[in-house]
């Protein structure tokens, strides 16, 4: 059910949504920034157009007590975007938040663990998907967005679209991965999608217009890794790695 906002807040909120889209932000970022404005609106009785530095200090101190640094940071960016692009006002607290600096290396599955995961994944589309991400070091969303036309067998590379920072890039295509993808395409024969959804089964895969479901992929990976006794925390890829299987 759509939340009910006061008229002035609703008008600015709708402008915010338009500005976020016009700035080419990803859907996840749009949701995070808009959620930040909604949350602040609820905290300040939807009167957020002239918040003082002290009010923002108190608010973010409260928020940090119940949320992670990443959430607080996104809320800060969201409110700052609102002030700069909707209200056209300068942000009053430029040095308000400085998250602690830390660098965590992603968990890496070994080649042996990856082979366990592939062998334990019974569904063909998920098994090929995991192998593809592992062999090319792709993020989950990057793999889901892959299309048949992104595969350049001649140059042995793959065109990754809308990667981190809304940038495209090319990644090397291992010969083994190309062979796996060719065999998989012979099964589903979708003219566009490399990993079509499974809603209609393999018989309808060639007609699918959406890729594999993100939640289904994540849930399957979680079940498989637990069955294999593998505990990994990395969210960068479905099977984060620095090596490639042969």
TrEMBL record:
<dbReference type="InterPro" id="IPR050090">
    <property type="entry name" value="Tyrosine_recombinase_XerCD"/>
</dbReference>
<dbReference type="InterPro" id="IPR004107">
    <property type="entry name" value="Integrase_SAM-like_N"/>
</dbReference>
<comment type="similarity">
    <text>Belongs to the 'phage' integrase family.</text>
</comment>
<dbReference type="InterPro" id="IPR011010">
    <property type="entry name" value="DNA_brk_join_enz"/>
</dbReference>
<keyword id="KW-0233">DNA recombination</keyword>
<dbReference type="Pfam" id="PF00589">
    <property type="entry name" value="Phage_integrase"/>
</dbReference>
<keyword id="KW-0229">DNA integration</keyword>
<protein>
    <submittedName>
        <fullName>Tyrosine-type recombinase/integrase</fullName>
    </submittedName>
</protein>
<dbReference type="Pfam" id="PF13495">
    <property type="entry name" value="Phage_int_SAM_4"/>
</dbReference>
<feature type="domain" description="Tyr recombinase">
    <location>
        <begin position="104"/>
        <end position="246"/>
    </location>
</feature>
<dbReference type="InterPro" id="IPR044068">
    <property type="entry name" value="CB"/>
</dbReference>
<dbReference type="GO" id="GO:0015074">
    <property type="term" value="P:DNA integration"/>
</dbReference>
<dbReference type="GO" id="GO:0006310">
    <property type="term" value="P:DNA recombination"/>
</dbReference>
<feature type="domain" description="Core-binding (CB)">
    <location>
        <begin position="7"/>
        <end position="87"/>
    </location>
</feature>
<dbReference type="InterPro" id="IPR010998">
    <property type="entry name" value="Integrase_recombinase_N"/>
</dbReference>
<keyword id="KW-0238">DNA-binding</keyword>
<dbReference type="GO" id="GO:0003677">
    <property type="term" value="F:DNA binding"/>
</dbReference>
<dbReference type="InterPro" id="IPR013762">
    <property type="entry name" value="Integrase-like_cat_sf"/>
</dbReference>
<dbReference type="InterPro" id="IPR002104">
    <property type="entry name" value="Integrase_catalytic"/>
</dbReference>
